[in-house]
Specification:
There is one protein chain. By secondary structure, the protein is α+β, with helices and mostly antiparallel strands. The protein has two domains: 58 residues, Urease metallochaperone UreE, N-terminal domain (HSP40/DNAj peptide-binding domain); 60 residues, UreE, C-terminal domain (Alpha-Beta Plaits, 2-Layer Sandwich), CATH 3.30.70.790. The chain is 16% helix and 43% strand. The strands form three sheets. The protein has a four-stranded antiparallel β-sheet with strand order 7-8-6-9. A three-stranded mixed β-sheet has the order 1-5-4, with no helix packed on it. A two-stranded antiparallel sheet has the order 2-3. It is elongated. The mean pLDDT is 95.
């Protein structure tokens, strides 16, 4: 496995499109976009990221692409309020992708109601999910 920019993209023989949950695995059977089956068999569970490459035993690479997922974009009126929202999400161990002026989280009606209750705006979006690692 190699990170984005650390593998020869021109040698990719296929692409696997995976959501957030499917990108954090140790062992899983995958099927590339060209229907080539691939067995991911790593020593330990690893979080794959969009743009990573998986080296094949027989040569070549498989590109990892993050799938668009049903998310919520959380915004606030001020940076201070957004920081406060980030604290509340972290306190609940909620995976979150921190953007310049928003936070992306997976859909959860309980969390969404809590966020609205403390002044955040929530908007459903479809986008790849790559939360902060911790």
């Amino acid at each position: 496995m190699a990170g984005r920019g650390d593998w020869p993209v021109a040698d990719a023989v296929g692409t696997v499109v995976l959501d957030y949950e499917a990108r954090h695995r140790r062992r899983i059977r995958l099927v590339c976009d060209n229907e080539t089956p691939v067995l991911l068999d790593l020593e330990k569970a690893t979080a794959l990221r969009d743009g990573d490459g998986l080296a094949l035993e027989g040569g070549g690479w498989v590109a990892v692409q993050a799938a668009a997922e049903d998310l919520v974009e959380v915004t606030c009126g001020t940076a201070h309020d957004l920081h406060r929202i980030a604290w509340h999400l972290g306190n609940r161990h909620c995976p979150a992708a921190i953007e310049a002026e928003s936070i992306l989280i997976r859909r959860d009606h309980v969390i969404e109601e809590m966020l609205r209750g403390i002044g955040a705006a929530v908007k459903p979006v479809m986008a790849p999910f790559d939360p902060e690692r911790g």
